[in-house]
Amino acid sequence: MTGADFQALLVHLVLGGGLVVLMLAISFRRGRLLAAGLTLLILLAALASVWWSAEVVPRTVTPLLRIDGYALYFSALFLVASLVVTLLSYRYLLDSRDDPEEFYLLLLAATLGAVTLAGADHFASLLLGLEILSIALYVLIAYPQEGHPPLEAALKYLILSGAASTTMLFGMALVYVASGSLDFAMASEVAAGGRLYLTTGVVMIIAGAAFKLSLVPFHMWTPDVYQGAPAPVTAYLATVSKGAVFAFLLRYLLESGVIGAVEVTGVLLVLAVLSMVVGNLLALRQQHVKRVLAYSAIAHIGYLLIPLIALGTSDAALAVEATLVYLGAYFVMTLAAFAVVTVLSGPTPGDDADPLERYEGLFWRRPAIAAVLTVALLSLAGIPLTVGFIAKFYMFAAGVTAAAWLLLAALIVGSGIGLYYYLRIVFAMTRPVAPAGERLPQTSASGQVTLGVLGALLLLLGVYPAPFINAVRHALSSWGG
Amino acid sequence: MLVLVLAAAGGLAWASERIDRSWPQWISLVVLAASAVWIGAVWVGGGAVATVELEWIPRFGIGVVLAMDGLSLLMVLLTLVLGVVAVISSWTEIEARQGFFQLNLLLTLAGVVGVFTALDLFLFFVFWEVMLVPMYLLIAIWGHEQRAYAAMKFFLFTQISGLLLLAAILGLVFQHQAATGVLTFDYRELLGGASGLPAWIMVGFLAAFLTKLPSVPVHTWLPDAHTQAPTAGSVILAGIMLKTGAYGLIRFVVPLFPEAAVELRYPIMLLGAVSVVYGGYLAFAQEDFKRLVAYSSISHMGFVLLGVFAWNQVAVQGAVVQMVAHGFSTAALFMMAGALQERLHTRDLSRMGGLWIRAPRMGAVTLFFVVASLGMPGLGNFVGEFMVLVGAFQVNVELTVVAALGLVVAAAYALLLMQRSFQGRPAPAGPAMRDFGARELAVMVVMMAALVGLGVYPQPLLDLSGPVVDGLRNATEVLP
Predict the structure, then answer these.
(1) Best-predicted range by mean pLDDT among A5-19, A173-187, B457-471?
(2) Which of A364, A419, A466 sits opposite B57 (nearest CB)?
(3) Are the C-beta atoms of residues A345 and A414 closer than 8 Å to each other?
(4) What is the distance, to the nearest Å, from the Cα of residue B57 to the centroid of all Cα atoms in its chain?
(5) CB-based contact, A385 to chain B, within 8 Å
(6) CA B32 to chain centre
(7) What separation in angstroms does the CA of A428 have from each of A411, A423, A477, B471?
């Protein structure tokens, strides 16, 4: 490996090294502030190194990893999301009776896994990243030791996620039988005889990924896990975990060249339409904000499949760009929504601001927080002047250029249904305050700053998205496909 | 420019609530009045407001293009004047959260002004959607009994049709790109640049505008939304927001899709005629003051639809006059309904009756607007409806006859409204009722003057919108 290789790998190195430093620091001296501060520093250093790595991309570092603008874009996204989650967790874990230091350790490990997935170009690195991410998540979900729901959620996630990983592994084995290589790109050279193995394998890989992305019909775990997990972890699960799996899925489908195959497109089409329609429908009757957000996430990943399907039919560059923009927007709005849930939660961990009644009258009690949540929800619904609209605009553009009318119809129907449950939350917030409303927890300074920044981003990117779009295009210009 | 002024004023009004409860009202009143005077001065002076052109999202050829021609100017002026009316009409009605109310009011108006001036389809769509959110909040927070249901229905209807509009805009733009190689959302470039567009793209536009107008199959949101909204909300909804749909038809649908418009002309005119009669018929059966007026709106906007798709000069001009006249007359009636509700705490017609004795000034004012609404010659609505019918007659006789029947129905429901509320046997005496004060009377007199002016001497207005209508018609010479 040359110096440039190391430079390209800097994000991984900083995160890995940071993990060791943090672990040592914790074993020598326990302290909440120390652990959180150190985590922030490590994440910031990793974020800074993204820029430095950008000088040497695109570059294949060992056969396992491909570091290009695409990988770095996702790495930056994951690091920012982890930063937000760290900031939110500090206050959230402050009143916890057990030691919160290892929480940050797991968070860093999960992020390392996600970053690895973003650059994975080989089944080995794919599996490696996926397992680092998932195993850290099992523990994170169950982190609050008090209470039953987190444990249940973690167990559910562990078993089902294990099954999904196995499915994916089997799929990889089948692809290997057909192509004789574990490289992503080799699948295109499969002889006619191996075709059946290949498509079966690819479909199984997609199924495994669909589980992690919680696409219908692999979505059963989502609402329970979202509800049971502590709010910051849910935010992490909804953004980084899904984003990482999507990043690998997109790269795999592009590089292996299987996207044009009828079977693969058909499977994706079914998943997309089901997710958009069922996800939105099931959200309608939910009485818990975290569950609503869970179903809405299902629908959103369903929307995201539109450009993925459009890849095979038309302007691939637009489709990839649409995916990246949408994921960026999805990160911001989901983090903002969960940030609000987190700052309203407490005082004891596990006592999350989940039931809808707890949001009644929020507009008059905490106008700023309610405003951020409103903007986040409107953004999720895709109303103009928020970043969610730009994202939805891209979905429409990808759908229209690919002439995918069925998908567009599902998108329109889904968005229409979606509005209803987003507005229900907004409406609850505008209700008069109940006379004997319980006390709301104090918002910490870090929480305020995070909320402010996320809220501003939602609007800023929605009103003036040109720099964001240019950044995405710049990242894609060094795509090393 | 103006959009920003209004939005900023909204923010200011919100902030000023902390200083004093009455500040927000004054701020929005002064800002709206000043803007109205400004635009009015532009009209009188014959000058033009500067066109704004900025790049926004170069990736898709999207720019910020705002311009104002005669038609836009007219609509913007209507918006601002009715904005003043809305503020005054809710002067005492809104007790809670005055600042936030004015913020939403001004944001809605800013969105509407944006819709009337945007010349970039993307920007147009943004404004189109943006005006909905504050309107939703107006209904949801300050509305009447069933506000949650009404607000949700309003939002879902307009939003889903809005998504169809978005898909259609993109379809149009990408077709245009395929034909000319230029990716742009600029209305002026798209206009006439593409012919032979598939009809489904127009249907997308049509879905959005007909829902907003509203025309018959997609009108059901309107009675609920209008009835449940606070007075200012109803005034804005009926007076201004419905006009955005009509404006969209005139500005976008027919000029952009002349061929498809010819193909679908008769079915759409039929929808218009049906709206006229059916809306009037339903209005006839209502027990609720506001609901009755709401259904009458459907009927009146049916004339606009008819006029636009007849697409000859007389008919389109008539549609424009009808839009303005309907804006005033309906706004006044909603204001009256609001005033009655504030005094009697009911909108139920069966609990009114004989109010003339208790409030003669209100009675006289109501009589004036009711008569205007049924199309009495000499008032603005008559000019509009007459011109539409004349124009439509040249295109299709049968449909015109059907629509003309609507005038008869209008007379029936309008007079019934008057009879049941102000005349007849007095309802069991309630608490003493305040008659109109100077504030309310002044507003009403201004709107009366506008309607009389429109009815007696509509020429200045026609001169203003005439060149625009002619220009749009020239762009679509395919039409007979």
Answers:
(1) A5-19
(2) A466
(3) no
(4) 30
(5) yes
(6) 17
(7) 26, 8, 45, 49
Within 13 Å of residue A106, how many CA atoms lie on the same side as its CB?
19
d(CA B211, CA A116): 49
**Can you give the length of chain B in residues?**
480
Residue B272: CA count within 13 A, CB half-sphere = 33
Query: What's the one-letter identity of residue B113?
Result: V
The single-letter code of the amino acid at A159 is I
Average pLDDT over residues B87-98: 74
* Percentage of chain A lying above the pLDDT 90 cut: 40
Mean pLDDT value across chain A: 87
Question: How far is the C-alpha of B71 from the C-alpha of A218, rounded, in Å?
Answer: 54
Using the structure block, give the residue that is written with the tokens 């609509």: B75
Tell how strand B62-66 and strand A59-61 pair up.
unpaired
**pLDDT value at residue A41:** 94
Structure tokens at A64: 């396992």
Looking at residues B333-358, what average pLDDT do you find?
81
Nearest CA among B439, B28, B19, B82 for reference residue B232: B82
Chain B from 295 to 334: CB within 8 A of any A CB: none
**pLDDT, mean of residues A91-100:** 73
Contact A231, A338 (CB under 8 A): yes
Query: How does pLDDT run across B201-240, given as a tens digit for each residue?
Result: 888 888 888 888 888 888 888 888 888 888 888 888 888 8
Say yes or no: A416 contacts chain B, CB-CB below 8 A.
Answer: yes
- Report CB contact under 8 Å: B126, A389: yes
- Give the helix/strand (H/E) hosting A48: helix A32-53
| Residue whose C-alpha is closest to residue A457's, from A397, A410, A409, A391 | A391
Q: Nearest CA to B322 among B220, B266, B396, B242?
A: B242
Q: Report whether pLDDT(A480) > 60.
A: no
Q: Give the N- to C-terminal CA distance of chain A in Å, as an integer.
A: 21
Which residues face B120 on adjacent strands?
B186
Q: How many residues appear in chain A?
A: 481
Amino acid code (one letter) for B175: Q
CB contacts < 8 A (A, B): 70
Dihedral angle at the C-alpha atoms of A243, A249, A251, A253, nearest 10 degrees?
-150
Evaluate if residue B480 carries a pLDDT over 50: no
Place of tokens 């009045």: B33
Tell me the range of A159-163, A187-191, A192-196, B148-152 where mean pLDDT is highest: A159-163
Min Cα distance B468 → chain A (Å) is: 29
With beta carbons under 8 A apart, name residues in chain B contacting A470: 59
Q: Are B304 and B320 in contact (CB under 8 A)?
A: no
Of A396, A464, A466, the CB nearest to B166: A396
pLDDT digits (tens, 9 = 90+) for A24-73: 998 888 888 888 999 999 999 999 999 888 888 788 888 888 888 899 99
> Residue B72: its pLDDT value, please?
83
Angstrom distances, CA of residue A72 to CA of A77, A83, A374, B88:
8, 16, 31, 56
What DSSP line would sit under A301-326, residue for residue?
A: HHHHHHHHHHHHHS-HHHHHHHHHHH
SS3 B62: strand
Q: What is the largest CA-CA distance in chain A?
A: 72
pLDDT digits (tens, 9 = 90+) for A219-255: 889 999 998 888 889 999 999 999 999 999 998 888 8
ipTM for the complex shown: 0.85
Q: A376 CA to chain B: closest CA distance, Å?
A: 13
